[in-house]
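The instructor's notes for this session suggest beginning with a concrete chain rather than abstract definitions. Hand out the sequence below and ask the class to guess, before any prediction is shown, which regions might be ordered.
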Amino acid sequence: MLQKKLLIICTQMEPGGVQRLAIELRKDFIKLGCRADILFIYKKRDILGEENFEVLFQEKTLNPFKLLKNVFFLLKRMKAVRYDAVLGFAHYSSPFASMMGALAGIKHRAGTQTNPPRESKIFAIPLDKLAGSFGGYTVNIAASHAIADCFENYPKSYKENLRVIHNGVRTIPASIGRNEARSRLGINIDDKVLVNCGRLSEQKNQKFIVDLMNKLPEEFKLRILGEGELREEIQNYINENGLENRVKLVGEVSPQEVSNFLIAGDIFVFPSLYEAFGLAMVEAMAVGLPVICSDHPALQEVGKGAAKIIPLGKKEEWISEIIKISSNENLIKDMVNEGYVVSEKFSFSKMSNAFYNSIFA
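After discussion, reveal the predicted structure:
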């Protein structure tokens, strides 16, 4: 049997959830016997702990001549390699991958939907709609039923190729104990610790958690893992509220270190304004943390039965539930066990096999 060849195209290189999924998916496709290459359209930040991947445009903005030149050479390479399939991950990359795939004569062209369409970049929305409605995608994969439902008013031709494949979680076990993990983060053994992971952005809504800290007892501490465009704003907000001794922005770590961060916590708090799936939430469940999250439909779909789901408008309920959970060992045990059950439903191998079968159907 001839080896199948797949090109994965991501929009920007940075250490985000979508990028991690694409990189891990590539590894699994290689294990399945494929040649799997990955390309980022432009570079935002390096991805810690990973190899140097190819980037189409080293700068986000280019003069038209250089842009066309790079696109031409990519098309030439795609034809030379004779890929069997191309997979676009995230907003611009999905319609871009479908267009390049069609021009290169690639039979299988997959798009992905990793956010509600209203939250996509403004130019990406019509491009994706065109690609999905006029045969650009041979399959279009949504990360949850909640995301698929967002396309209810799209043309029938768009929805016909829409499939739901839940994201998968591949957790790397912690390499240190809880006490050492806390020591690294400057946390006392007796502190009650809230943790959060995610890009420092409006979507992830970390300022909401900082607000909660104003009303939580002094014994509560908060550690936030990640980098992003709102780092300075969030740090200033922490300082303005006099919380710099209780709230720390940890920065980025490699994927191998995420579990070492999570095990230092007592409760994972996830107040996102929107999500396609809630990858960080499921990772927290997989390492044994109780989870409190917002009531976005995707988080309800994925976290139902394990997470405590609270609307963002009910801030007092967030505070009371944090205090209640942190002081009730039986409740913690129940939430942790339920979290393990949920996390086991979303194995990465299950996701990889579903992607493979959908793309090459």
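Then share the key points. Residues 5-168+347-359 form a domain with the Rossmann fold fold (CATH 3.40.50.2000). Residues 25 and 31 are 10 Å apart (CA to CA).
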